[in-house]
Input
Amino acid sequence: TVPLSHLTDRQFELLAQLLLEADSPGQHFYDSAHLLTYGADEGRDVVLYKQELPVGVVQCKRYARSIGVSNVLQELFKFLLFALRDRSLMPQARGFRYEFWTARELTKDAGKFFMEPTSYFQQHSSDLTKYVAAARKACKALQQPSPHGVNHDDEEREVIAIARSLQFAHVGQTVISRRLSAQVQVRKWFFRGPDDAPSSPSVAQTGVLVEQLMGLAISRFTQSGNLDAESYVPSVGLAREFADFLESGDRVFVLTGGSGHGKTTWAARLLASPPAGWEVLLIKGEDLLDTDVN
Output
């Protein structure tokens, strides 16, 4: 399985949308998948369309832990409350598909819900109102009066009735990993494996690259005036300390000094005229990445 929890929330949503688009949507109940604007989703992250009409939504949760049934139902009723107030979100409730994508697997209770949603609604009918209330409490917009003049109690009963007519699906880490294996290009946009890396260059190729980088650095130093023989007076003390360092077997030589004291010019001259028997490669600190460990 791939480490989906390493993605950001937005990356996980984008991954879901790309997989849905790559999975031959015309052969399914939808023909396109649209990623919504981040932070304004109204309980949905991706909308599935069929002939330009919404036929399903996808809610993505990139949690590092398993998600329980209370989280699932709270998210479900959040969307349904918004859809009840804005009919364009779900023009036809019966057969509308609600998909829940997670970076990890579900808890046992949440898994049972997706396996037998009709049975779950029947067996836990008395608990559903608290999930609707939790969804409303978590969203200020849903705490406002309905634009259609429906009171909160009636909204509660209606969204519970609507929920019973939907189709549900859960897509978790195992299924997503399997789909990424089938959609290699999508996987490479988010995850790279050992087989994806280019082959390591040969010693000769590395040598050529080093020579090119050294030549480029010398050219830049020449243009900046750092290699102008008349602009730099060598320090006898520095030369002696550096010579001792080369003979000592130590691996680090630290040179410090104030601005304009000649540190860069000394490094430029060292690059252009390295000590006998030594090769010099200049690597600037700003060129190092956090992933460079050697």
Remarks:
- The chain has a mean pLDDT of 88.
